[in-house]
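REVIEWER CHECKLIST
Item 1: Sequence provided? yes
Item 2: Single chain? yes
Item 3: Sequence as submitted:
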Amino acid sequence: MRRIRSILTALAAGLCLLAPAASAQLGGPERYAQSELISERTSAAPGETVFLALKMVMQPGWHVYWRNAGDAGLPPQLILKDTSNVPAEALGEFLWPLAHVLPVVEGEIMDYGYDDEVVFALPLTVPSDAVGEVRIEATADYLICEAVCVPETQDVSLVLAVGEPAADVRSGDLISAWISKVPAPFPGEARIDDAAAPWTLSLAKAGGFPEGARLRFFPFEHEISHPAAQPQREGPEGASLSLTPDRAGKVGEVLAGVVRVDAPGAEPVGYEIRATRGGVLAGTADRAVADAVVPEAPAALGLQGLLALAGFALLGGLILNLMPCVLPVLSMKALGMVSAASSGHAGELKSHGLWYTGGVLVSFAALGGAILAVREATGFATLGFQLQHAPTVAVLALIMFAVGLWLMGFFELGTSIQNTGSGLASRGGALGAFFTGVLAAVVGAPCVGPFLGAALGAVMSQPAPGVIAVFLAMGFGMALPFLILSFVPGLHRLLPKPGKWMETLKQAFAFPMFLTAAWLLSVLAGLAGAGAVGWTLAGATTLAFAVWVARGGGMIRRGAALAALAIGFGLPAVQANVPAGPAPGDVAAEDYAEDAWSPEKVEALLAEGRPVFVDFTASWCANCQVNKLTTLNTKRVRDAFEDANVAFLAADFTRKDPVIAQELKRRGRAGVPMYLWYPAGESEPQILPELLSQELVIGLAVGG
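Item 4: Structure as written out by the authors:
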């Protein structure tokens, strides 16, 4: 079990890093964007100001970011090389075209950016003493994202003759078209009323906004919550938006940003605003506007990313064959294949394999459909943050305990279903093979979760076909060994024969389940306190009582057992929903770190001239605990930090914390662990690998 869990941990931890590589191996591009430097002129006079532009063409489904990326991401930048023959001050800043929203996690994480193609114009002032030619050599540095994010750089260059001005008509037209998409100064008055939350941004504009127009505000900084809805009101003089302030957000002298206006039948336009503080402008908030703008749906996962994730799911399906809950059915299938092989009819053996595969695939497709139904009913379905919800953790601990009791043989799980399946599977021919596949998938369902996490978490927000594709890939992985055995008959001799050893192995697997339940109780303690743990232990006792009562048979005993099951699962979940214990962010840092993390704390420590190491962690994160045990909490690392005066901070993400979530997304990370190293005097950190070593951390401390 430990080996299997190690494999799965490595798969989950490496998914975001391996997906781009897997795409390349499948024939994907070396880059996910192609960049070039273009100019509106082929020749320019000394002292003249002309427009250059960085043109970027993205692969389908990929995007880059606006000047304010939002909750995550980094904006592109053009870094001038020393080999250029113009000074850095000759180049101006990017003119940022109007962006659109990029929802990452609906209602929680929102970005701003561009997809398909974007052109960033920037002015170049030709030196007054320039002769011959102006040579621009630079590096385009950007973060580009789909389901994963990839930092890319690309060398770009441009040579502009110095002399009589001459236009490059094609490039000039393209640059002009994109400059026209840059938000214009707002032709009116903007005011922000921050006296109470939510704030009100009012916009007075002569003639108002077009009928049916929907507005959204994109801030230049991070004063507001990016994913929050912005309810709109309007009046004869303009419109207003309700803005949810960020946790630490406050308005300075002005609130600056862009208002995007989407009107029916028209191209979106943007206005750059600088809203001064004050009361709501008259005539801008008379009535509410129904059906406010709905954020754009996430882009569908590209074919290359989907293939990479399906590959991980297929591997998970292969590993699923090793689980004890599946082995008895597989052994039954193996005996059927042995009989078919002994008949000497290769076609019959192949038919068995194909029909068995069909039964598995149908079952996994049905399971995927059930997940999609939940998503449709609730609007949200993901495996990403379930361990931050105390009632869920309590129920999971009880399920692990119940599975352990089942493996030990205290009760039979799904006896009627298994007996029915066994009867159908015992039949000969295609129907028997098909229902053997169905039975294998049914009894294997309790083991699906641990193997599905990485692939399902990446595609759960995607359209239904992508989700079903991942489930089918997992089912195909589960069926693949027998499919291979069906077409290579001699391989069936490698299968172990069924026997008493399977029951012993099944019982042995109960103990890892009990240990998993104990670990979940420790997570629960951090989320909801010792009281919730006590109630969950009482629930486990009630479950054991239900099993004991049900053994006697009879209607009364069965009714008592069902009541005990309801109480055993229900009461701990209800009790765990009562907040207790330390508040979010109040990690017990004294156990292994100097203090709890906050952006302000980092700034203060850097101002003192100290290097800073930040551990973004959670009690439910296995990698985090391993890194603490093997590296961060060791005497060697502690001594090295003390000698180098390193400030060691901990950011506890055991519970949901929007400030920590924002920092994770800002650094392009979907979760913990994340490790940041701030060298002394550096305001931007290095992001360290997810698996640490003492040598790496000590080397950073010694190097300052």
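Item 5: Key structural point noted by reviewer: The chain is about 45% helix and 20% strand.
Item 6: Recommendation: ____
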